[in-house]
Amino acid sequence: MKRIFFSMLMFVLLVETSTAQQEAQTISLAKGLQLRYAVIKSRLTEAAEKMPAAEFAFKPATDSRSFAQLLAHAANRNLLWCSALRGESDPNKNDDIQAKSERVDVPKAEIVKALAGSFEYCDQAIARETDATLAKIASQGQDRRARGLFISGVIAHLNEIWGRTSVYLSLKGLPTPE
Hints:
By secondary structure, the protein is mainly alpha-helical. It is built from seven helices and two strands. The protein has a two-stranded antiparallel ribbon with strand order 1-2. A hairpin with a 2-residue loop joins strand 1 (137-140) and strand 2 (143-146). The longest helix has 25 residues, at 147-171.
């Protein structure tokens, strides 16, 4: 019993010592949003890779979107919201990602390519944001809001999609990205 107690005490002391030795970090709002975006981008990319191509049409219920539709929807929204950050019109207006998000039978390769392309488009816009630019107004059609709200909207939406795709993966017996 004394050995167990002593071992636990040593472990706690080692953890506290190593934690105390780490330097404190200051993360700005812009950097924090960029980090959160990078995490959710990684999770969704991994989720897309983990789901077998034959399961991209999987729907957990008849009134649910398929796995492919969820990812196509995410790509579509990324392009829409990041176009406001870039000061451009929605690049998807003349593309077929919206159409793909309505179809169940889109091949995995097309969905993965669309998702990756939307992330590349957003990467450039989000990476150049600073704490000062986050408060500036951006427009999307008649919608005008702080640039930071567009980024937080992208992150929140991607987290929602990731949560749903995690359920799809779990129902197929596949591990969820963390």
